[in-house]
Amino acid sequence: MADDVERLLAGVRPLYDGDDARALLSQWSKYYFNLVVPPALVAARVLKRPLAMALSESTVVLRHGLPHALWLPYDALGDEDDAPAPRYRSLCVEHLAPLIAQLSRAARLAPRVFWANAANTLEYALAHELPGGGCDADWLFGRREFFDTGEANPLYRAIRYVDTERAGLASPFRARRVCCLRDRLPGQTLLCSACPLLLSMSDAELAVQLTLREEE
Q1: pLDDT tens digits along 100-156
Q2: Pick from 40, 127, 150, 207: most CB atoms within 10 A?
Q3: What are the CA-CA distances from residue 53 to residues 27, 95, 133, 207 (Å)?
Q4: Is there a contact between 179 and 161 (Cβ–Cβ < 8 Å)?
Q5: Where in the sequence is the signal peptide annotated (predicted)?
Q6: pLDDT by residue (tens digit) across 62-89?
């Protein structure tokens, strides 16, 4: 799927102006993660069961180039398990990791940008929408090791909560560690609510962002 870059770009171009392929594919990946992450979280957090979703055994249906539906094997739902590692391993190691590697090569963009997009969806749902999900979020984002792979955890502190005294920003401020590049696209003047650029911009620039958000 990620090898067909033009098809993916064709899906996201009607939504954004500009021809920065890296920024456009970053935005496309958000739609993808918003499709595949929720079912894994419902299984892992609500049902306490792993969902087998290896990329090689999953089918993502595209509609006009955008992710539309996810098909998994009929026996994808595993047995109940209290430990977080088996409940989230397939999503993170078998699905997200190879998919992000493909997107990174296709876009010639650092994997950390795509991991930050995935982390934003994953962490927000666990920490703010699913009862008791904070414990799972702490496990996923607080470990330096990436499950049992022997590799560094790409989710490690991908979302941080920063104490700030800047007027208009909540403290602690929930921030992605890596920007999604949306600001590189024409007309995208309003940054996302977790954009790390909000912490470093001037007071005048921040005031513009706060006004834009009030008008949204």
Answers
A1: 999 999 999 999 999 999 999 999 999 999 989 999 999 999 999 999 999 999 999
A2: 40
A3: 22, 6, 20, 43
A4: no
A5: none
A6: 999 999 999 999 999 999 999 999 999 9
Q: Angle at the Cα of 126 (from 124 to 127), degrees rounded to 5?
A: 65
Is residue 14 helix, strand or coil?
helix
Beta bridge partners, 59, equal 71
- Residue 24: pLDDT band by 50, 70, 90 thresholds? very high
**Cα–Cα nearest to 117, from 188, 205, 23, 186:** 23
Predicted structure pTM score: 0.95
CA distance readout (Å), 11 to 24, 39, 115: 10, 23, 21
Tell me which residue has tokens 């007027």. 167
Instruction: Tokens 């296709």: give the residue.
Output: 106
Q: Regarding beta strands 173-176 and 159-162, do their DSSP bridges make them parallel or antiparallel, or are they unpaired?
A: antiparallel
CB 173 within 8 A of CB 164: yes
Of 194, 129, 201, give the one whose Cα is nearest residue 158. 194
- Residues with Cβ within 8 Å of 41's Cβ and at least 6 positions away in sequence, in order, are 122, 125, 126, 130, 133
Give the Cα separation of 126 and 138 in Å (integer).
Answer: 9
Distance CA 70, CA 68 (A): 7
Residue 163 sits at φ, ψ, to 5 deg, of -70, 130
